[in-house]
Amino acid sequence: MQHARSDRTDLICVAVVVGAHGVRGGLKLRCFTEDPADAGAYGPLLDEAGQRLFEIRVTGTVKDGVIARAEGIDDRDAAQKLRGQRLFVPRARLPEPEADAFYRADVIDLEVTDEAGRRLGRVTGLEDFGAGDVLVFAGTDGGETMVPFTRAHIPVVDLEGGRIVVADLFDAESGEALIGPEHRP
Is the distance from CB of 84 to CB of 16 less than 8 angstroms? Predict the structure, then answer.
């Protein structure tokens, strides 16, 4: 799913190692590419520091990702040591996002405002718990807020302006504001 800001990162996370698969060094990957099988399609992947190369070959699919082989990872212990390793590709190897689309990395650290322009915080992450993407932001009050990443909840993603607008949300039963001017003192 994103960076047009001048401070954007040059590495985009395309997968994370979630565990070993089998005894011969297979890796189970959770992929962030539109098609999970494309995780190895962009050439060698890098660690976050851009120092270690991973030559990935996707060999199969599983419920929440793919099974892959990495050059030099030949047994279960070596594969298990990579658990949690995020795998990156240089942005230059990726296609430009389509209109009204972006890479996940592009929204991290954007300012979050309400519809009236009041600052609510900064984006700290995007999560997918199975029912769709969820925007996570650290509020100006120090708390963390999660909002469904849908057009109804997030009507504006302004990469050039460095901000995301969150719609004022209300509790369906009580009518109490969950986010927005009515929620703050």
Answer: yes
Residue 30 bridge partners (DSSP): 16
Looking at the predicted structure, is the pLDDT value of residue 4 above 70? no
Q: How far apart are CA 9 and CA 12, in angstroms?
A: 7
Exposure of 37 in the CB half-sphere (CA atoms within 13 A): 3
In three-state secondary structure terms, 119 is: strand
Residues 184 and 128: their CA atoms lie apart, in Å, by 28
Q: With contact defined as beta carbons under 8 Å apart, do 167 and 152 qualify?
A: yes
Pairing of strands 26-31, 65-70: antiparallel
CATH superfamily of 104-180: PRC-barrel domain (2.30.30.240)
- Its pTM stands at 0.72
CATH 3.40.50.1000 assigned to domain 11-92? The reply is no
Q: What share of the chain is helix, strand, coil (3-state, %, to 5)?
A: 10, 40, 50
